[in-house]
Amino acid sequence: MTHGMRTDTYTPHLDNDRGWRDSLARYALLPLRVFLGVTFIYAGLDKITSSSFMKASGPGSIGETMHAVRNSSAIPALVDLSLKNPVGFGYAIAFGELAVGIGTLIGLLARLAALGGALISFSLWMTVSWANSPYYYGNDLAYLMAWLPLVLAGAPMLSLDAALRTRRSRRAGGYR
């Protein structure tokens, strides 16, 4: 048996023509971006418009949630910090989710938005979801893992970041 280079395959990188697989690969993160962007926008709006969430106490309030998870969280000091002003913390989370969701959906400062999403998911995992057993019952760890590819890759396609990059490239004479 001889080993050699296959000559029967199409190599689009040699003639700058992209095959369908290359095109699909370029858009691979788009469904994840849309899902996370829409989900975080919805989560932020849901918190802001909730009649019970933005309260220091009462059923369904941010204050009650933080009191309930205080002793079972991985970082009780973070929960204590939120309990100093639960309503302010609730608004910070809600507006953070909105900013992250919008940035991710339109692809503006996409890596920074994804990092914000990862940090929100990490803090929720360390506090609210930490006591879930087994760990995969909580969704915050899954969201954290979903944000990581976007932190690494950004939004290379169908994004304001890509449009701005193309515009800068054209102004610079085509050089990146």
Shape label: elongated
Q: Quick check: average pLDDT?
A: 89
Report the count of strand segments: 0
Rg for CA atoms: 22 Å
β-sheet strand percentage: under 5%
Task: Estimate the helix proportion, in percent.
Answer: 55-70%
Q: Strand pairing plus helix content: what structural class?
A: mainly alpha
Largest sheet: none
Helical region count? 8
Low-confidence stretches: none
Give the N-terminus to C-terminus distance in angstroms. 45 Å
- Give helix and strand order, one letter per element, not per position: HHHHHHHH
Question: How would you describe the overall organization of this protein?
Answer:
The N and C termini lie far apart (about 45 Å). With about 180 residues, the chain is an all-alpha fold. Helix content is about 60%, strand content about 0%. The model has no long low-confidence stretch (mean pLDDT about 90). The protein is elongated.
Summarize the structure.
This protein is an all-alpha fold. 61% of the residues lie in helices and 0% in strands.
